[in-house]
């Protein structure tokens, strides 16, 4: 996997509104492998902070989201100039 892909996966994993399923669709990387990648790439304290942040977060799992939420990111997240 290229460094740019790893960087993008880390960015997506930190984003509150990007579900693990989106990462799996784009990079063929299931949640358990995303967790392993994060453990490998982040400092231990950053990994613990990330795990605490995403554990139980409804927006990180499509099945837990409200059915009307179809997007993977906030509409204002990617602003075009």
Provide an overview of this structure.
The chain is mainly alpha-helical and 81 residues long. The chain has one domain. The protein contains four helices and no strands. Helix 1 (3-14) packs across helix 3 (31-41). The longest helix is centred in the N-terminal third of the chain and has 12 residues, at 3-14. The model has no long low-confidence stretch (mean pLDDT 81). Keywords: Hydrolase.
Short description:
By secondary structure, the chain is mainly alpha-helical. It contains four helices and no strands.
Order of secondary-structure elements: HHHH
What proportion strand?
A: under 5%
Helix content: 40-55%
Return the domain count: 1
Shape: globular
Task: Calculate the mean pLDDT score and round it.
Answer: 81
Look at the helices and sheets and give the structural class: mainly alpha
Distance between the termini: 31 Å
Low-confidence stretches: none
How many β strands by DSSP? Answer: 0
Radius of gyration: 13 Å
Q: Largest sheet, if any?
A: none
Query: What is the count of helical runs?
Result: 4
Protein name: Fumarylacetoacetate hydrolase
InterPro entries: CHP03643
GO molecular function: hydrolase activity
Keywords: Hydrolase
Task: Give a quick set of tags describing it.
mainly alpha, single chain, 81 residues, globular
Secondary structure topology:
Layout (H helix, E strand, L loop, with lengths): L2 H12 L5 H8 L3 H11 L2 H11 L27
Helix pairs in contact: 1-3
């Amino acid at each position: 996997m290229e460094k740019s892909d790893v960087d993008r996966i880390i960015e997506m994993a930190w984003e509150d509104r990007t579900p693990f399923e989106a990462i799996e669709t784009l990079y063929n990387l299931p949640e358990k492998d995303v967790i392993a990648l994060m453990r490998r790439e982040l400092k231990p304290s950053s990994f613990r902070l990330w795990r605490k942040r995403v554990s139980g977060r409804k927006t990180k799992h499509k099945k837990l989201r409200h059915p009307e939420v179809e997007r993977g990111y906030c509409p204002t997240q990617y602003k075009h100039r």
